[in-house]
C-alpha cells in the first residue's frame, strides 16, 4: 500500500513544480476561479493540454514560492506576479498565442442557478410568456411586482421584467422564482484577470487590439505631438514638415507682396502677372470636354421622342 505524502512533502512538491513552470514558461494568464467546480476545471485542463498548464493553489504558497525563486535566480521580473495573486485565482502557463488561449478558456463556461446571497455578475431579465405555473403561484410574482395574467389556466408574464441588476445580491424570492421557471441565468468559468509576458503585466483587453487599432492609436499620438510642437514652435520629426511648409508660405507671401523673389516663387508670381496662363493650362481639359460633350448632346437631340397618340387614332372623339 502506497504511503500518502505528508503535508510538508506536498508543499515541497508544489514549490518544485511551480519553480519548474516559471523557468519553462514566459507567458502566464492570471485567472479568477470563483464558482468553478472540480469537474469543470478538469475539462479546462483537458482542453488546454498540449501547450498550456493550469496550476491552482493557495495564494500564500504561490507568493512564497515566487519570491524565493526570484531571489535564487536573480530574475526580479517574477515579483510582478505577487500583486496579482489576490482572491480565488489560478495560473495558466502557456507557450501558445495568448489571445487564442484566453478564447479557449472562455469556451468552458457552464450555466448555474441563482443562489441566495450570490452577487449577480450580469443583469437578469425575466422574458414575457407562459410560465406553465398554476394560478396558485401568483404570490411569487406579486411579491416581485411582476405583471401577470391567467391564460388557459396558467400564469403568463405580460412584459419583460428586470429581476436582478448586476452587482446586487440574489434574494430568496428571486432565487425561488428563477428556480420555478427553470432559468439558470449565470454562467461561470475561468476569467482572465491579468496577463504576464516576459516580466510585463497588462490587462487582457490588450489581447483584443488589432493592427488597425494600434496604427490608429499611433496616428492619434503623432497628431497630438505635432499639435503641441507647432504650438510651442519646437521642431520634431512630426512637426518639421509642417514648419517647412508654413515657412515657405510666409516667404511666398512676402515675395508676392514685394519685389523680392526666389526660384520657388517665380512661377507663382508669373501666373499672377499673366492670368491668361491659367486658361492655357486649362485648354486641353476644355478641348477634351468639347470633343466629347457636344457629340453626346447632338446624339441625344437626334433621338426623336415618340409622338403621343391622338384621339383620332382611338376611333372616337371627345364629343362621341
Automatic annotation (TrEMBL):
The keyword Transcription does not apply. The keyword Magnesium does not apply. Keywords: Ribonucleoprotein, Ribosomal protein. GO terms for molecular function: large ribosomal subunit rRNA binding; structural constituent of ribosome. InterPro entries: Ribosomal_protein_uL10, Ribosomal_uL10, Ribosomal_uL10-like_insert, Ribosomal_uL10-like_insert_sf, Ribosomal_uL10-like_sf, uL10_eukaryotes. GO terms for cellular component: cytosolic large ribosomal subunit. Residues 114-183 form the Large ribosomal subunit protein uL10-like insertion domain. Residues 302-314 have a biased composition (Acidic residues). SUPFAM superfamilies: Ribosomal protein L10-like. Signal peptide: none annotated. Residues 289-320 are annotated as: Disordered. GO terms for biological process: cytoplasmic translation; ribosomal large subunit assembly. It holds the Pfam family Ribosomal_L10. Gene3D superfamilies: 3.30.70.1730, 3.90.105.20. P0 forms a pentameric complex by interaction with dimers of P1 and P2. Belongs to the universal ribosomal protein uL10 family. Ribosomal protein P0 is the functional equivalent of E.coli protein L10. This is 60S acidic ribosomal protein P0. It comes from Carya illinoinensis.
